[in-house]
């Protein structure tokens, strides 16, 4: 198995960075090689990737989700992979995002690339894109504040969708279950091990502005766009 561990500091609050990561369908915006992600339900995802001309599709399941702290997932079919992303507040408007990946290279090119560190460069490149994406916006495109443990939704959160909580997908390979997913529920510091969907791996919220009176019998107010749910 190949493993990668990379971190980046982003100049947004931890809730903004976390909320954006829960919007899995936005992954193609900052992950090269990920063509599309479909959110099947609260814990089930379908990935379409194109890496080096090799197209693949696979399903993945969210194993663990702790608001503002952790997201971990693993494939249930297709390329063997698992992963986790952790979020550490460094201040009111700064967050450290750490991605840990475990995956099984299949082709000779993938195996060779893993040996020379191409995977590390892909992850770093995608984290750089995520940083640029969220810092330029200043706020998330949406957010889901629910909690998931061992693949099951424990709390749908205030912004949860009405989708069912049972994915009906194949069982996750136990060899790919990240330690972070088994330890986070015990209140300890997660030991993040995981996956990264096959990409070329490499908030500071906008404050509400006070209403500005305009001559006439009305006023205008510029506010932050509302966040969507899953």
Describe this structure in words.
The chain is α+β, with helices and mostly antiparallel strands and 230 residues long. The protein has a single domain (2-220), classed as Alpha-D-Glucose-1,6-Bisphosphate, Chain A, domain 4. Helix content is 18%, strand content 32%. The chain is built from four helices and eleven strands. Strands 1-7-6-5-4-3-2 form a seven-stranded antiparallel sheet. The chain has a two-stranded antiparallel ribbon with strand order 8-9. Strands 10-11 form a two-stranded antiparallel sheet. Strand 8 and strand 9 (152-155) form a beta hairpin. The two termini are 32 Å apart. The model is unreliable at 160-168 and 179-224 (pLDDT under 50).
What is the terminal separation in angstroms? 32 Å
> Whole-number radius of gyration?
18 Å
**Approximate shape:** globular
Extended strand count: 11
Relative helix content: 10-25%
**What would you call the quaternary organization?**
single chain
Order of helices and strands: EHEEEEEEHHEEHEE
The number of helical runs is: 4
Which strand order does the major sheet show?
1-7-6-5-4-3-2
For the record, the CATH architecture stands as: 2-Layer Sandwich
The figure for the number of domains is 1
| Overall residue-averaged pLDDT value | 74
Helix/sheet category: alpha+beta
Q: How much of the sequence is in beta strands?
A: 25-35%
Largest sheet: 7 strands, antiparallel
Per CATH, what is the topology?
A: Alpha-D-Glucose-1,6-Bisphosphate, Chain A, domain 4
Q: Uncertain spans, ≥5 residues at pLDDT below 50?
A: 160-168, 179-224
């Amino acid at each position: 198995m190949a493993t990668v561990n990379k971190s980046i500091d982003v100049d947004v609050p931890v809730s903004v960075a976390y909320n954006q990561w829960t919007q899995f369908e936005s992954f193609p915006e900052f992950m090269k090689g990920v063509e599309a992600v479909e959110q099947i339900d609260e814990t089930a995802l379908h990935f379409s990737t194109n890496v080096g001309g090799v197209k693949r599709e696979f399903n993945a399941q969210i194993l663990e989700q702790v608001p503002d702290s952790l997201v971990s997932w693993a494939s249930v079919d297709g390329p063997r992979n698992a992963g986790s992303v952790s979020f550490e507040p460094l201040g009111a408007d700064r967050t450290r995002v750490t991605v840990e990946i475990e995956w099984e290279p299949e082709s000779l090119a993938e195996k060779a690339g893993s040996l020379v560190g191409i995977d590390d460069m892909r992850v770093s490149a995608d984290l750089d894109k995520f940083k640029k994406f969220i810092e330029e916006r200043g706020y998330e495109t949406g957010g889901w504040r629910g909690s998931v443990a061992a693949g099951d939704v424990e709390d749908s959160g205030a912004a949860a969708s009405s989708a069912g909580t049972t994915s009906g997908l194949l069982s996750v390979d136990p060899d790919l279950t990240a330690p972070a997913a088994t330890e986070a529920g015990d209140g300890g510091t997660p030991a993040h091990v995981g996956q990264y969907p096959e990409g070329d791996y490499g908030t500071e919220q906008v404050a509400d502005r006070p209403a500005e009176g305009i001559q006439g019998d009305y006023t205008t107010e510029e506010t932050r766009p509302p966040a969507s749910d899953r």
